[in-house]
Amino acid sequence: MALSAGAAHERAEALSRPRANRLGLWLFFASETFLFAAFISARFVSSGTYKPEELNQPLALFLTVVLLGSSISAYLAETSIAHGNRQGLIRYLSITILLGLAFLVGVGFEFKEAIEYFPPETIYGSNFLALIGLHGFHVFTGVVALAVVLRLGTKGHFEPDDYWGVEGVVKYWHFVDLAWVVIFPTLYLF
Amino acid sequence: MNDSGGYKRDAIRVGLLWLALVVVLEVVWFSVEILPRQYAEEARIIDDAFNLLTILGIPVFSFVVAMLIYAALRFRSGGDASQDGPPIKTSTPVVVTWLVVTTALAVFILINPGLVGLAELRANPDADLVIEVEGQRWQWVATYPNGAEVRDELVLPVDTRIKFEVTSVDILHSFWVPGFRTKIDAVPGLTTSVYATPTELGSFAEDSALRLQCAELCGIGHARMVMPVRVVEKAEFQAWMADQLTAEAPAAEGRG
Amino acid sequence: MRPLIRAVVLGLVGYVAGAWLTVAVRGGSPSDDVAVTFGFILGLIGWLMGIGVWNAWAREWFGLPAKPDQATGWQRYLTFNTDHKVIGVQYLVTFITVLLLGGFMALIMRWELANPGQDFLDPDTYNKLMSMHGILMIATAVAGILGAFGNYLVPLMIGARDMAFPRVNAMSFWLIPPVAIGLLSAPLLGSFDSGWTAYPPLSVVNEGGQVLFILAVITFGLSSILGGLNIVTTVATMRAPGMSWGRLPIFVWAAFAASVLSLLITQFFAASLILILLDRAAGTTFFLAEGGGDALLYQHLFWFYSHPAVYIMVLPAFGVMLEIITHLARKPLFAYKVVVAGFWGIVGLSVAVWAHHMFTSGMAESLHAPFMALTEAISIPTGLVFLGALGTLWQGRLQSKTPLWLAFGWLFNFTIGGITGIYLADVATDIHLQDTYFVVAHFHYTIVGGTIFALIAGSYFWFPKITGRMYHERLGKIFAVWLTVGFNLVFIPLFWVGINGMNRRIADYPEFFAGPNAFASVAAYILGAGFLLYAGNLLWSARRGPAADPNPWGARTLEWQLPSPPPEHNFPLLPEVVGHPYDYGIPGSVHVAPMTPEGGEEA
Ligand code: HEM
Ligand SMILES: [Cu+2]
Ligand SMILES: [Cu+2]
After folding, report:
1. Rounded CA gap, A190 and A182, in Å?
2. Which residues make beta-bridge pairs with B142?
3. Is the dihedral of CA B145, B148, B152, B158 positive or negative?
4. Which residues of C429-466 are buried (b: 16+ CB within 10 A; e: fewer)?
5. pLDDT digits (tens, 9 = 90+) for C3-23
6. Are B214 and B174 a contacting pair, CB within 8 Å?
């Protein structure tokens, strides 16, 4: 009797689980949005729309394209597993990770260059360091999470009707991309 | 149990209790002197605001207290947990009245003392005398128009609109003279300003409200980052200021 | 005990490794800001892995099966346990302990303040003690009710078997001990002397303990964010059949609203502290004028969090008190929907009033009037909460029990707290009162008189549910009176000294203020002594008290329909909600259908 009622519970929970996971993830994004908003507002409050001449615009634009590309490959990874295509999952996840790493290397290079022209001791330099650092940290955690999911994928985890791990990490990756789409103009265009 | 007769009786009694409390507290408020002595025109403006807020706050406070006292005395049950009160879930007239009254109160205080007080304080951007005040850990340095730098006492002329231009060389401090009720932070890299128009003679020795007290936490010396204030006649002030230039300046340098 | 020992060891190893690696890579001393930062981060990871994140969770990321630590009895409370009731009790005990510790610090401060002049604390020590007291108490107020009752009650009240993310929940709690350890070990690095507000430039140039403050508080923020996320998701997705939004118990609404706020705005506190850390450790110049930085930027970011934070503290307190009042007045919660609307009005307005803390900061004067207006507007939704409370008491059948006595004290205190808030919202009066003891008295009336009173009242009200035993009623009432009277005796005189020119955060003051300060100090010791009665009553009753009826208050909400303490996974059968929780006095009304096997199967 109690057992069967417990089973009813389990059923109800199995139904609410994906909803809960998705909502939890979206709430996490909402929260992170406030973190980015704090840093971005700090940039405008403390250095207005000032930007130095020496910014490497072509490189930043190129990195933006790289990151946007990685969002596409992440999307393809998700659709692959949704259709039961494990090979595709592995391929596209790997591409996404590589693009993410390329972005990190590029940003590191840009940062090294930038620090010469506008060191952290200047207010623009402070904002540059903080925003690039904050975003870079998010890209880094995204790459790590993608790597964990990739490993699980190669070991045979995830099925067409059960791939929350992939979905979650891909959504996170899109979020990190989107953050860059706001940060890029904040630092380079205004 | 929820007959309207009982309801009315309770309401009238609470109303009377409320009235009594209001009267008593207002009388008390008008008969005790709580605010420190006013040494400046600004103090009068700010104290007026304080008074008005208290006069309006007393009925609000009394209402809650009257309700609590009455409920504690009259609505106590014998302890039988199965006996429920009347099932009043809500009452539109009560809710609407409540909203109207609280909104009206909020709007009222926003206008007066809120905006009115603000306007009075900012009415006059001119000043008869400008004194630069610089905060540093842990002392104040006042620079008078004649260039005299003073550290041990802030001497001010009575009946003169004075503008203090305040800044800091290290971290945050705050310029506050309780007798004037004026306060403004001293922020490194920024010059802030505040006005005071002394109206009464006096000195720190007689009243501790006449002190320039740092009001923003600034470390070890914060509590004692105090400069005595003395309000003197205008003529006396002029003489004193001239004296500072000859006598005090070399001494201050030696100390710095 | 094993997991705890493992956590301590791994935490220490992590700390040492982080600090040592930093020194190896970039030189410098192991106690400089950068080394401490990396030490803390690795230490935190070590601690979490040790306590059970590895076993119960992270193993899955490597394709290994999770194997949570098993423990029974009281040992559950020392492990990474995912039962929301265990976590609620962990929070309750932890924060009552922190409250008592912070209170003890306050007594030391009042000893120094009993007379003008320096007695036994030098100003530096005083400032550091004051700062420690402040942050411990703020943490208690922010996380106490949400952590303890939010976790314990929300799933029970909505008919769920646990929180939406039980492991995240356990992690939220286990992030707290490193916060406490970080803060309390700050004296090893010279402590922090910039108050709980940590205004730069002071917090950039002071001693290294400030870094531990920053790291600990960011960790605490992470815990709040995860906790808030969990409560919001749980309420949104795990309600039992029939538990519509219109039937949510008021405490659930309050915890939900506070959690939405906490989830979002806590990031601003984290951000503002990260910027200070960067100024200290990475050579940036956000708040230093020499490099073009701006000290006021911090205040804007900080208060954008910290004003709404006062509502994170007080909304759950509203919820607790309205529950108590409704059940013990045995009447429907008056104007339930209006009260809920009031909560959301508060949430909405609370993010738009922050600069009322900055009227004397030197910010643009054009901001003064709008922020005054918005702040005064927030008293309207706050007033609706009073409407709910007083309307419910009106013509009730009041059960004379300790929690209700405390609710009366709470209403009294919070009225004073709210009215004095208006003096601070008015620009003219705030120019005089800002940074004086008037502010100290105001926020103690709201936080102690509001939030801590609710924490204490709740700990009586749900005591029989949590422990299965009854507290001693007469001692409880004595304490309720003691607390209310003692508290008012301490803080009423502080309004007076503030108005008359005593600024806050000082170890010494002019002779003029000697009388009221001596009075407040004596009263503080009386108040402090009262807590022996509190702790004694609850500790003794938890072990020896008479067995309590599952529903001693005859209350209608779901948690009272279960045995005390409720079994693991709460509901053997799925509850079905068929009516409003507060329909006292309405003949034939029911909140939950009888929990029969059929009832369970239907769902
Ligand atoms: C109608 C309600 C309230 C109003 C109008 C109000 C207004 C204010 C204002 C204007 C200040 C700034 C004072 C100053 O620094 O000059 C202030 C300070 C403060 N308030 Fe309130 N308040 C209200 C309710 C609350 C509540 C509910 C809490 C907490 C539960 C609270 C906690 C605080 C704290 C902690 C501070 C001081 C922060 C600090 O400087 O350390 N207030 N309040
Ligand atoms: Cu100071
Ligand atoms: Cu505030």
Report:
1. 11
2. B133, B150
3. negative
4. bbbbbbbbbbbbbbbbbbbbbbbbbbbbbbbbbbbbbb
5. 999 999 999 999 999 999 999
6. yes
What CATH number corresponds to the domain at position A81? Answer: 1.20.120.80
The answer to whether C242 faces chain A, any CB pair under 8 Å, is: no
Q: Which domain holds residue A108?
A: 5-188
Model confidence at C590: pLDDT above 70: yes
What pLDDT is attached to residue C73?
Answer: 85
* CA C291/CA C284 separation, integer angstroms: 8
DSSP classification of residue C149: I
> B 104-143 residues with CB below 8 A of C?
106, 109-110, 113-115, 117-118, 120-122
Angstroms from C331 CA to nearest CA on chain B = 5
For C512, nearest residue in chain B (alpha carbons): B208
Give dist(CA C405, CA C476) in Å, integer: 9
What pLDDT, on the 0 to 100 scale, is given for residue B254? 42
Domain residue ranges in chain C: 1-62, 85-561
Q: Report how far residue C312's alpha carbon sits from residue C331's, in angstroms, rounded to the nearest whole number.
A: 27
Given a cut of 80, is residue C442 above it in pLDDT? yes
Q: Answer yes or no: is pLDDT of B255 > 80.
A: no
Task: Give A159-167 contacts, CB < 8 A, sequence gap 24+.
Answer: A159/A81, A159/A84, A160/A81, A160/A82, A160/A83, A160/A84, A163/A78, A163/A81, A163/A82, A164/A18, A164/A21, A166/A77, A166/A78, A166/A81, A166/A89, A166/A93, A167/A78
Cβ contact B83:C330 at 8 Å:
yes
β B149-150/B139-143 pair status: antiparallel
pLDDT at C340 over 50: yes
Peptide bond into B138 cis (omega under 30): yes
What interface predicted TM-score (ipTM) does this complex get? 0.94
Ligand nearest to the CA of C381: 1
Do residues C571 and C592 touch, judged by C-beta distance below 8 A? no
Atom index in ligand 1 nearest the CA of residue C360 equals: 16
Q: Which is it for the CA torsion A122, A125, A127, A129, positive or negative?
A: negative
- Kindly report the protein residue whose alpha carbon is nearest to atom 6 of ligand 1: C421
- Predicted confidence (pLDDT) per residue in A84-143, tens digit: 999 999 999 999 999 999 999 999 999 888 888 888 899 999 999 999 999 999 999 999
Q: Which ligand neighbours the alpha carbon of B109 most closely?
A: 1
**Contact flag for B and C (3+ C-beta pairs < 8 Å):** yes
Is the confidence at residue A14, as pLDDT, over 80? no
CA of C448 to the centre of ligand 1 (A): 12
Chain A residues contacting C via beta carbons under 8 Å: 1-2, 4-6, 8-9, 12-13, 16, 19-20, 23-24, 27-28, 30-32, 34-35, 37-39, 41-42, 45-47, 119-123, 125-127, 129-130, 134, 148, 151-152, 155, 157
| Among candidate residues C561, C599, C240, the one with its CA nearest the CA of residue A4 | C599
Q: Do C63 and A2 touch (CB under 8 A)?
A: no
pLDDT tens digits, one per residue of C463-488: 999 999 999 999 999 999 999 999 99
Q: Whose CA is nearest to atom 12 of ligand 1?
A: C357
The domain made up of C85-561 is a member of CATH 1.20.210.10: yes
